[in-house]
Specification:
single chain; 19% strand; Rossmann fold; alpha/beta; two-stranded antiparallel ribbon
Amino acid sequence: MENKSKSSGSLHKNNLHKKGYDLEALITICPELKEFVFTNKYGTETIDFSNSKAVKCLNVALLKKHYGVTNWDFPDENLCPPIPGRVDYIHHLADLLSESNIIQDVKVLDVGTGATCIYPLLGNSIYNWSFLGTDIDEYSLENAGRIIDENSLNSEIKLQFQPNESHIFQKVLNEDSKFSATMCNPPFFKSKEEAMGANKRKLKGLKQKSTDGRNFSGNSNELWYIGGEKAFVHTYLYESSLFKKQCFWYTTLVSNKDNLKSMYASLKKLGAIEIKTIPMHQGNKVTRVVAWTFLTEKEQKEWI
């Protein structure tokens, strides 16, 4: 039942960013990026990736140049997603769907789509998938809605408010729902204090000054959840079992590998037919996608 995929040690082979960025070309697309570019001690042009404004400007340029997203803005307090890592999840999900012969009319449920709506934008641009994005934050959905409007994607990307922050699929899925896959980037930390502590350690490692204030991008529902990533994903697993026939592949990112063992045990108890673990790498960071289905082999064939 369990299938652990081999690690390649780098970004997905189809990821446009696996060889880095052409900053000169990006500056042509987005002149504002120039003020953030400098030459490091190795003689390489780069940006300060600890500066959320620099990362946001880089992302704006990447989305314009490679993904046809001409308008992308959000409040500074919201999480600024790294494009290469988000693209990787999309490509690995595409591989998973292709292996199941799901190529046409792909419909994806993005749990916690956030103010940036990044996964729907990328998935629609690269593979022409349609999306439903959900979130517990109405203000984030309002901003995501503006991005969708300004890029004329209303027919491809829909949004839905999740009114109960303790639920994930309940109040969203019903017996008539049918999704090719779900995707999610869960909150990692257990509290604001834990998130800030981790950020201070990160800045220290980068030899950047830390302050007592909030010196990272990301609001509460994006960064922390009571019980942390483990509690969130176990709610995700349980609620997926309430809608076994409504989705072919349920998937989520899992940052902490120590959470995998309990996830596998829970999924087996919940009746998962097949479980896959897909490693993903971005620089020194290692994470993974865990995917599972409740569909029998016969039901999988009938799905097509």
